[in-house]
Every structure is written in structure tokens, then in C-alpha cells.
Amino acid sequence: MLRILARVARTGNLAEPLEADLEALGAQMKTLAERRFAGSLALRAVDAGSCNGCELEIHALNNPYHDIERFGVHFVASPRHADALLVTGPVSRHMEAALKRTWAATPAPRLVIAAGDCACTGGEFGVSYASCGPVAGVIPVDARIPGCPPTPKALLAGILAAARGRRD
Amino acid sequence: MTNFAWLPAFKAHLEREHLLIRGESGTCLAPARCLEIDPEDWAKGGAEAARFGLRWAGLWADRDALGERCTCVLENAGDYLILSTRPDGEALASHSPWYPAAGRLERHARDLFGLRFEGLDERRWTRHQAWPEDRHPLVDALPAPGETPPDGDYPFAHIPGEGVYEIPVGPVHAGIIEPGHFRFNAVGETILGLEERLGYVHKGIEHLARGRDPAGLARLAGRVSGDSTVAHAWAACQAMERAAGLTPPARAVWLRALFAERERVANHLGDIGAICNDVGFAFAQYQFQRLREVWTRRNADLCGHRLLMDQIVPGGVACEPEALAALEYDHRHLRKALAGLFDILEDHPSLRDRLQGTGRLSPLTAAELGVTGYVGKASDQAFDLRRDDPYPPYDRYPPDVPRYQAGDVAARMRVRMDEIGISLDLMDRLLGDLPKGDLAVPFTTPEEGEGLGCIEGWRGEILSHVRFAHGRVARFFPRDPSWFTWPALEHIVQDNIVPDFPVCNKSVNASYSGVDL
């Protein structure tokens, strides 16, 4: 304990200045979450066939630099608890049924956000015998976030745009 | 690398067993050596390789002008030996009796290529319900797109017994991870058996590669498994460069190694945090995610991409990194931060209690399965291409290779901790000697020819086979290390409790996309 206190005294305050653009996005997100989603927007991430690059960046949304929970956005473990699905990847044919079922299990009104180039357009994989291509070909999509993979900030901006566009 | 000092003895061994070597070549997939054998000798080839102690490192099917061909890669002392045969419609013997991890690669070749194997698990693997059993997408007319029913009736193995129950998990998982199905058989909290059912993110990579130009193939290879984008792109480019007989400039090679080590450090940082998080030690999770984010942001400063995607191109690297001068400071800073954090991880009894002895993979099983990377190194399998068959620039900087015997989650985390330090030292040396000169040589696509790329990715050994025909890519097969660590996970979780599955899984962190292709 003494060692830790001594270290705290020695180290001092190392807090970095907040990133202005992230904070601005976050403030808008927070206001919107409070106004339209009773304080929190619950997201369910579904990988429908991605290369896992998008998942790394979605994970980064939760790291201490972004920590999007402070803006009222959090990830839930079940589609039944979700306001929105964040879908990555071209939809592989082997994931088509699972994605449709996940969507059906999400209570309406629900948002679907296609995250990453593959989810938006099919990206590098397109449509083939094994891939249905963009998410919009399988379930209705409300918003798209391009990028390969989209950066955490682009993801937050896209989630904000999707939440804003929601028809009440 | 022993320059095949053992090969004459192995060939003599094969001769004693009356296995006829139809042809031998040191050039077809150089630096590997190739032995051509008859299809009826395929079983003997596998059995004798196992008796001789060779590691089974992969298998793929191909069809060229002369007909179908099956190729199997074996490794010993850092030398790669290729067995190949032309089955000509005949069924080959499965190598799975001697090499248990071979089965999935053989099932993959059967599902996509129609290659027939005797003695192989007859259940589908990469194929689900999107196309019928008699259709093989890489040789027959492509199955038509259409609605795909769920893969509901897959015959899982059931464990009979009083009180045994099954837990189906997935394909959509609770966390932010890739899809796959796990079927647990458990008694109370104890896992009796785990069976994996993968293939959910199969998106036809081998088919998409056909007809691409080299730059297009490098882009695709960089998306085989997003977390290994540098390593897979490097392996594919190395294969293409070997096929074309060209050597990338020294500066490009040094930068490739720098990127590959940065990828290794980033993933190890993220995984150490995640392992700790899975046993409820959130402090470490936040610290390591912070360090990973700082590291990833530097990637963006260097090349404009946080994961370094598309930085490795055929013939060299895509751009001159900026802010190289900042890296030395980064390395010093990270070492200092890690010294404090590792101290805490090592001196935390509740963490030790959860990680030590959990998810044990015995050295014997690890050797039988042929696992590489941190899963192997934690179970006494100290193979590392950068040391054992070094490609430039690692021939100048052979790294230390950590090796532990415990084979538990703690040992796999320990290997990652060691490897971060080793990579940091390596990167300092790479930066100190960074050669001046061009970033790439123009890549002339060969009309015909093939090459094998062998790269030590952060997960372990990556093999990449590329064959050109008529100046275009005719065949691409990337073999991710996860082909071997997935089967290892089935062993690892046995006799552990169900709630420890996530930490066991994270300590292995096999790629779904890398094997589903």
C-alpha cells in the first residue's frame, strides 16, 4: 500500500488532454442516448463473416482511450437486450441463417448498422458461391460505416449517425 | 535449418519400406525439397514420416494441366519436405491416424476439391448447407447463390452416461468475437469433451484468389485473418517472389520485419489484457488495452493504417514510414511500462491461482498435433521459423525462443510476455541497421510457376502456397497456424470447468477466419 502511495506521489498526474473531436462526438452521442434511448444505446455486435479486423477496432471502442460507455453506448451479450445490431463482414452464406435469426430476436424498433467495407458493399469478398455480399442483401440496414476496418472514431461517428436517423 | 542433413536417412528409411520415390526436386517449391510418390504409397508416406518424427505442417489440393495433385508439407529441423502425388481419381489414405490434426485440412480439401480420402472422418467440415455434397466449389461449376438453411443436423459426437449434458454455444457468441459453434459435453461443471464446428465465416478466399494479379492477391492475403494481416500478406508475397525468382530490396525486407514484429507486439498486448480480463482482473485489461491503443496509433502515424493493412506488396513495401525516429522512444517507454505491469501480474496470487494449471496441453499432445507459436512454445515445442529456418532479415538477427513445459494458460501468457521483450530488442536492432535504398522492385508476374511462403506470424508458422498460370494466380492456399491450435483447444479444455472455457480459449486465440477461408 505504502509502495503504491509513494508511486502515486512520485508519478503525479499524467492525464493526457482529451481528444477534442472524440469528446465532441461523444457529447452529441450522450445527449442523443439520453433523449431517445432512455440513457443508453445497447449494441449487439454480430460478425457475419469478417476477417476479424473490424472486431479489433470494435474492441478498441471499449479501451480507456475511447471508452464509449461513458457516452451511453454499450455492448450487450444477447440480441434480446439490443437496440441496434452492429454487423461486420460480408454475410457468408454459412452465417446467413444465424444473422437472420439474430435480427429476428432483436426487439423492434431495431437499428442495423453495417460496419466496415465488407458489410457495406461486400468489400474484398463481394458476392460469390460462399458470400451473400453486403448486409443489406440479407437484412434491412439503417446506416453504413465504411472503412477497412473503420477506425474507432469512424465507428462512433457512424453509430451516432444511425441513432440520429432513427425514426421514432 | 540443417540443409536436409537428415534427408538421405529418411529416404533410405522409405526405401526399406518399399516406398518408391518417383521424382525429387529441390527447385519446385525452393527452399523446400519435393518428393513425388504414387497415390497408393500415400499412407506409407504419412506413417513413415510420423515414425521418423517429422512434423506434419499442412496439405492442399490443386489441379493443373496434368490433373489433380495433392501436396503435403512436412518439417524437420527447420527444413521443409513436400510429399506430392497425383491421385488421378483414386482415394488417398488419410494421414489422420498418424497425425490427428491432419483430418481437418483433409476434410477441407475433400469439401472444396473433391479429393477422396480413406479412413477420414466422413462428416462435412468447410461445407455446411450452401451447396450439395457432390458439388466441389474449386473444381465443379460454382454452386448458385441462394438462401442457405442453417447447418442444423451436423452429427456431433455424444458422450453417453448418467448426468452428462450438452451445452451448445454459437455460432453467434456473446462477446465481440468471430462466429463458430462449440458443443460441450459436461458433468456438473466439468467439461468431458468439446467439439468444435467451424466453417461459418467461409467466404471462398481460395476461389476469389483465382485470376487475380499479384497486387490483388496480396490484398486478399492481408484479409485472410485481419489480426495477422502483415504476416499473411508477407507469406503470400514471399511465395509470389519465390515463384518469380526476385528478391525484394533490403530496406523493404527490414521494414517488413519491423511491421511483423509490431503486429506481434500489438496482438500479445491485447491478448494478455484479455486473458486477465477473463479471470476478472480488469486492472490488467485496461492497462494492456491502453498500451495496445498507443501502439496502434503509432502504426497510423507510420503508414496511415492502424493495423498496417496493405503495407506489404509484391516486390517490397507500399510506402516509406514516417516518424521512424519516434519508435526508439516508444520501445523504451513500453519496456518501462511493462516492467511495472509484469511485476504485478507475476506477484498476484489470485491471478496465479486462476491461470496456473488451467487449460493444460501436454508436451506429448502438442507434439502429436504439431502446434507452433505460443501454444507450442508453452508446451515444449520451441519451433520458430525466425530462428530455425530464418528468412531475411532474421538470418541476421536470430531471436531467442521462449520454451516452457507447463502447457497451461499461465505458460501461454508467459510466452507472450517474453516474446514482447524479444520483439522490442529485435526492433531496436532492425532500426539501428535499417538499410537505405528502394522500397520495392517492380514485380514481373511469371507466366507459370509456383512458390511456398513460410513466415512466423504472431500465432506461429504461416505457410502460403501460390501457383501462377498464364500470368495470373491459379491457386492460393494460406495455411494459418490455427489449423493446429483449434484441435489443441479441444484437448486443452478437457477436465476444466465450463466457466474457464473463455480464458482457455483466449490463451489460444485461434483465428476463425484464418481456417474457414
Would you summarize the structure shown here?
The complex is a heterodimer of chains A (168) and B (517). Chain A is of the alpha/beta class and 168 residues long.
Label this structure with key terms.
heterodimer; A: 168 residues; alpha/beta; Rossmann fold; five-stranded parallel β-sheet; 6 helices; elongated; B: alpha+beta; Beta Polymerase, domain 2; five-stranded mixed β-sheet; three-stranded antiparallel β-sheet; 15 strands
Structure description:
Chain A is of the alpha/beta class and 168 residues long. Chain A has helices at residues 2-11, 20-36, 53-60, 93-105, 117-121, 152-164, and strands spanning 41-47, 73-75, 84-88, 111-115, 143-145. Helices cover 39% and strands 14% of the residues of chain A. Chain A has a 5-stranded parallel sheet, with helices on both faces. With 517 residues, chain B is an alpha+beta fold. Chain B has 2 domains: 7-118, 2-Layer Sandwich (Beta Polymerase, domain 2); 205-516, Cytochrome-c3 Hydrogenase, chain B. Chain B is 39% helix and 18% strand. Chain B has 17 helices and 15 strands. Chain B is globular, with a radius of gyration of 22 Å. The mean pLDDT of chain B is 94. At the A-B interface, strand 1, helix 3 and helix 4 of A face helix 4 and helix 8 of B.
